[in-house]
Protein: GH18 domain-containing protein
Organism: Xylocopa violacea
Amino acid sequence: MVNQIPVPQAKYELLTDVRQPRWKTQVLCLILVSLVLGVLFVTRAWLGIVILCSPRAETLDTETVVDNAKVATWLRRARMYAESTKENQNADRNNSIGALQHFYTNFSRQIIVCYYTISSNLNTFGELSPSHIDPNLCTHIIVGFAGVVNCSLDLGSNSSIYKEVIALKKLQPKLRVMISAGGSNELHLGFSEMIKSHASRKKFIKSVLNVTKTFGFDGIDLDWEFPAWIGADEREKIRFVQLLEELQREFYRAKEKLILSVAVAAPQAIVDQSYIVAEMAKYVDFVNLMSYDYHFYVWYYPITGLNAPLFPRSAESGYLSTLNVNFSAQYWLSKGMPREKLIIGIPTYGHSYKLDNPMNHGLLAPANGFGELGEMGFVRYSTVCEFLQSGAISVFDDESKVPYAYKDKEWISYDDVTSVYYKAEWIRANNFGGAMILSISVDDWNNTCKFNESFPLTRTITKTLRYQED
């Protein structure tokens, strides 16, 4: 009998495992990488939302915090306009808006509305005092901005400045001086609280009547940016119409010949979300269309663009083709605002960008932040003139009818005498109610651009609309 010696069995399973691909480990690594990327994406998106919603936040390329009321409100509006570009899914991309209509109105009826922004509140870079304002430039001066605090109109500590502006009526009796409520106050949600009930609106209206009577204002402008916009109660736009109706009724009852106007958004997405245009039209004397800030540096769209193009460029399509003055005005008309009540906004400031590559300096050029000139991307007209005097090259875009300028890595979109002339002629030809200037405080009131010529942009608009013969 042969003894059988047991032979140890080889551990082939181990060898087999080594030779097989480690698919479980690979899947785990893939999941971990996806999670990390997801967290980074969500974090960046969250930061973007915080930046858009926060009036005090800088862009991602800076570390400082916006702590300057002079630019906080304008910066907030520009960011909300940029935000509207991302919220355009419901916009009609097939809108077709024509160019000039060839008929003229009685230009003496068209008004020139000039915003004057108080230095301690929102004078935005300039220190224009009321005594330096030419009272013959504007038919209406709107002084901003009063707050809406505890459901009442709050003038803060600027009473003396309001009185100085109203005193200009002694030099030009036909001048109308109004007060604007909103502006930087909207950082504190004054309107949203005030309109919630009839009682709170009544309290606000009573305070308006008291202020206008005490100081001698000719009316009030409501600058709410913006009712029922993203994240807000959709009922706000209904309540806003109720406020306008109640204001008009109380003005009539008080036998006060007061003017009621509203500063309104230009982008289609905001118009659709924030306003019941046809109903508003019943109660306002006019609306001031904020037709500017169409393009502004934001981290998710880091390319150069025009602040206030009159017309679209042929290369623009879809929603981008709606980001211009002509489209916005025609869209407001199509929603039910009468032509004679639509006052077209013209900016006296520009927007600056920092170019990635100074050799790539045209439209849609890559940018990585605000330019060095101005504050937070906002550049007054006198600063633009200094930029040009320093050797910057100016390019006038024949399609959009506005210029831009560049030098080294600095790039600025702005309006000049030529572009505001085109806009004023377009306003005149299309029979709109007039022009609104934002603002005389940042026009060249100190003769920087041309010797012995103050307020060149505003003066050009006034001459074109009110003193030019047919």
Q: What stands out?
A: The chain is about 35% helix and 15% strand. The mean pLDDT is 83.
